[in-house]
Design a protein that fits this description.
The structure is a single chain. This protein is an alpha/beta fold. It contains 10 helices and 10 strands. The longest helix has 17 residues, at about 180-195. The radius of gyration is 19 Å and the shape is globular.
């Protein structure tokens, strides 16, 4: 469904600040895959997501989505195929607009827009049912400005928005990192539910190795801009955090294990 072939990206090339972010990434996702991505700081995790989303052009290599080469496609044109939830709960929603208005914007992503009523009666009912299913008590606050919601509530709404049009690919970029542990678990459980019910293909970046093991059907580890470990099925289910640390140390050296990864 998604294929990256020898994707490379260097920032600030030819300067003292040159940084090799991706050094030849090869990755294939099948329909329905839910892949978790882990690695130390600067491993290239978020850079891969940005490359797929089209935030900036890659230096070389190809990105193919459903047999269509999207390598040169601008970000706004990829938006009709790709949904994304960011680390910052403030991103992904319009803070000064109501919950129902944000959902209406998401429902029209990639479509032509005219001067028809902003939200139809049918959409009101649909959005109400979707928000009620979140079980956060927000269905009776549909006219509340999103900026007044908590971080967890905003991420839940962003998840709905990102998956509303059933994208070919859902990108989750450390979308629980800014939340407290209890709220993070709720959002992760909600992510599982949305991905499963809609049969979405998803790529989730995380620093938390326990979450990476517990969620999804496949796990990849990155280091120095490349994929160094790819595991799925029963082997993934039987993984322990100590196994992942060992794999990371084997590939990157013991000194490369960041404090944040260990604490996770």
């Amino acid at each position: 469904m998604l294929e990256l072939k020898n994707v490379k990206k260097v920032f600030n090339k030819g300067t003292v600040n040159e940084k090799v972010a991706l050094s030849g990434v090869d990755l294939v996702l099948n329909d329905g895959d839910f892949v978790t991505v882990i690695g130390g700081n600067g491993a290239g995790k978020s850079t891969v997501l940005n490359a797929i989303a089209g935030v900036w052009p890659v230096d070389s290599g190809t990105i193919t989505l459903h047999d269509t080469d999207i390598t040169a496609l601008p970000e706004y044109k990829r938006a009709q195929y790709i949904g994304r939830v960011f680390q910052d709960p403030m991103m992904g929603t319009a803070a000064t607009m109501q919950i129902d208005e944000n959902l209406a914007i998401a429902a029209r992503r990639g479509k032509a827009r005219g001067l028809k009523p902003g939200i139809t009666a049918e959409e009101h009912k649909k959005f109400y049912d979707m928000v009620k299913a979140l079980d956060l008590g927000l269905e009776d606050r549909m006219t509340t400005k999103v900026g007044l919601l908590s971080g967890g509530q905003r991420q839940a709404i962003t998840l709905l928005m990102a998956s509303l049009r059933k994208p070919d690919l859902l990108l989750l970029d450390e979308h629980t990192a800014a939340l407290d542990p209890k709220t993070a678990k709720k959002v992760l459980d909600l992510s599982d539910k949305i991905i499963s019910e809609n049969n979405l293909t998803a790529l989730m970046v995380t620093h938390n190795m326990k979450d990476a093991i517990a969620h999804g059907n496949r796990l990849i580890m990155m280091s120095e801009g490349r994929v160094i470990y790819d595991v799925s099925g029963e082997e993934k289910k039987n993984l322990k955090v100590s196994d992942l640390l060992q794999k990371f140390e084997e590939a990157a050296g013991e000194d490369a294990v960041s404090d944040r990864m260990v604490l996770s």
